[in-house]
Amino acid sequence: MILWSLITWIVPRLWRRWGAAAAPAYGGSTLAADRDRERAAADLREHYVRGSLTLDEFSQRAGRVLTARSHRQLRAALSGLSPRAFAAPHPFDLVARGRLAAQAAVHGVALALFTGAYLLFSGVLLLVLAVTLLVHGASASALVAFLVVWLVPTYLLSRLWRRRLVRPHGR
Question: Which domain holds residue 82?
């Protein structure tokens, strides 16, 4: 009981002391990325176009958005405005997502087709190997030839299975 009360007394004090020293100078909120600033600036432009902001307000808020280092500063620059009520995704984001989805679909179809062809090829090759072994017997050169003929497509298919789709930069 005494140990527990000692722990509950010490831990919060140490947390406040060391946590405050480790916290960043901008108030502990997370850093804003360029994309966050661009979205906030796009929101401001949309508010200006719709008449929610005057030119002076837009200029002041845009300056604060572009120099913001944290999400808290971005929220402060956008305070008093409706939170992305009319914000549809940026057209370039939709195009990039569509292109990525199309690439994934094509990759999946190609993977299924090549895997089916590989399984058919492996079955036929196994059948030919069995017939060759029955007719001519097991020679080292025949086994090596069949192994090489089977390993090349196996390697190529494994590369296709491991291939990852490349995402566009900055998206």
Answer: 24-87
